Structures are given as C-alpha cells and as structure tokens.
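Each record in this resource describes a single protein on a pair of labelled lines. With that in mind, the following record should read easily:

===
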Amino acid sequence: MEPWLLFAILSMIFAGVTAIFAKIGMENISADPGLAIRTAMIFFLVMITGWWGKVFTNMPDMGRKQWIFLFASGLTAFLSWLFYFRALKDGPVTSVASIDKASIIVTLFPGFLIFKEPMKPQILVGGGLILVGMLVLVWK
C-alpha cells in the first residue's frame, strides 16, 4: 500500500472518531470553547511534531506565495471548524459529519482546473455518489 493511501485511511478513521469525541465533549458547553480547546490541543501537538521532526528548518526557503496560501488555508480551516463545531453542537453528528465529509465535492473541480488532475469517469461518478449519499443521509 502506498504511504499516502494509508495516511488517508488513518485520517478518515481519526476524523470520524473526532466528531464523536467533540459532540460528547460539548455536552454542557457552547461550541466556541469546544473549538478553542480542540484547536489549542492541535496547535500544541503540531508544534511538538514540528520541533521533534525538525520540519521548521526549511521555513526560510518558503516564498511569498507559500505563505499567502498557507495562511489562506489556515483561515479556511478555521472557518470550516468554526461552522462545523456550531453545527455539531446542535445537530445530529451523523448528518453534520456526512455534510462535512462531502467537502470532497468542493475539491474536485479545482483539482481538475488548478492541478490538472485527470477528470476520470470514476472520479465524477464517485463524486456524484458522495453527493447523493450525503443527501440520502441527511434527508428528512
């Protein structure tokens, strides 16, 4: 198995468990403190991982474009988490997580246009199935 595939599978598993832990953790608090605590934990662990793995040594090689897009990614991740936690606090975890995971649909067309990734029929069908699956899961 390719390392990226293993990492993607592990990411899927941990992301699913994360939703359950977050929903339980926000039982008696609002979404914002829940997000703050989770984000502080992530920041702490990322900094330790970066220090331990010496990944900060190549930061001087980063150009303006990398800084801009990484900051933009941080901003969009923050907004995603902010709205995710607010939805998770009041909504059913199965519906919120299903909608959140359907974010793949948002990434397909930029992947084709910006990164010139091949627009294979199985990707289009799979994206369509994800969209239909999400609709089926959240349909009232």
Q: What stands out?
A: The chain is about 80% helix and 0% strand. Residues 102-140 form one domain. The chain has two domains: 3-91, 102-140.
